[in-house]
Amino acid sequence: DAGITQSPRHKVTETGTPVTLRCHQTENHRYMYWYRQDPGHGLRLIHYSYGVKDTDKGEVSDGYSVSRSKTEDFLLTLESATSSQTSVYFCAISGTSGPVEQFFGPGTRLTVL
Amino acid sequence: GQQVMQIPQYQHVQEGEDFTTYCNSSTTLSNIQWYKQRPGGHPVFLIQLVKSGEVKKQKRLTFQFGEAKKNSSLHITATQTTDVGTYFCAGSENTGNQFYFGTGTSLTVIP
Q1: pLDDT attached to residue A86
Q2: Which chain A residues contact residue B88 at CB under 8 A?
Q3: From B33, which residue of chain A is nearest by alpha-carbon distance?
Q4: Could you give the CA distance from residue B94 to residue B81 in angstroms, rounded to a whole number?
Q5: Which residue of chain A has the CA closest to B31?
Q6: Which chain B residues touch A31 with a CB distance below 8 Å?
Q7: Which residues, including other chains, have CB under 8 Å from residue B73's CB and lie 6 or more apart?
Q8: Interval B53-89: pLDDT, tens
């Protein structure tokens, strides 16, 4: 498996609290992605990054922000968590521009009460 | 926006039977990828198809990309219990890096 870690792996939080999820890679890949996975919806792209400090929105970006200050780290922040953000969050990386395979991290299970 | 639909949502087969999942896009795709996710695991890349009408094989798995590049299929011959998991297609509209995933097909193989 590619060198991707996510932290925390599990988190329970309350509505209205801020939450930050971290994705760390040791592959020096340029592209990094955050997806959420929900039953019946597959994987949906939240935000992605194509370089340090270069990010763009995905199809479900409302309520989420991201930052990438170093090649190896991509942070996903829920400024004020809501119950609809209860999900499994996956980080993924890919190495080059254009359509190439994505390597996924182990996921973070987030529950918002 | 782009939509990628996948059918069926669930499939139960007896070990040794064949299995097929279908992926349909509302728009023309530049390429399509297939991933497998084992229960409790993360998606793992299987293959990428780029050309119209392309067919690729990996042992018992056969992948096809439609002539119009709007649909794709994954066929597994003689399923085994190791094939259990959810299979996702993911399509991209252009040469960029944003992929739209299908809803997935969950495969159960009954020994």
Answers
A1: 97
A2: 42-43
A3: A101
A4: 36
A5: A99
A6: 97
A7: B20, B21, B22, B23, B63, B64
A8: 999 999 999 999 999 999 999 999 999 999 999 999 9
